[in-house]
Amino acid sequence: MKLIYCNECHDVFRLFKNSRTCQCGESGGHYKEDGLYAVIHGNCLPLGFTNSTFMKARDEQPEFGAGSLFTSFVIPVVCPTIDHVDSKDYVYHIHQQHDILKDGPKKTMRNNGKLKNVFKDEK
Fold first, then answer.
1. Which residue range(s) make up the domain with 22?
2. How many structural domains compose the chain?
3. Is residue 28 part of a domain?
4. Mean pLDDT over all residues of the chain?
5. Which of 6, 42, 45, 94 is buried deepest, with most CB atoms within 10 A?
6. Within a domain: residue 38?
7. Which tens digits make up the pLDDT trace of 39-53?
8. pTM here?
């Protein structure tokens, strides 16, 4: 399982096939169609869980005490299953993927170059 840690807002979130961002919109990403390879952007750090140890810890969750440990790790900078791209390139990639280039990437970007967080109520 891949997660993203945003160095700006300290949000941690899981990747899905649809694009997601952190709370501040600085970082985000998605899994490619194969569910293994991912594209991420922004000032972020990719994290990983060893799925088998996580599932075992989940299944063995104690009623009380310190809890069950599982293996997590910081994914290296050079990783064959992750493309870390510039935020502007990411927006273009998303628009190409969904074939909605008619509005252009500027409609999706804030003035400061961050992606909009569609889950956050901005006034």
1. 2-107
2. 1
3. yes
4. 81
5. 42
6. yes
7. 999 999 999 999 999
8. 0.70
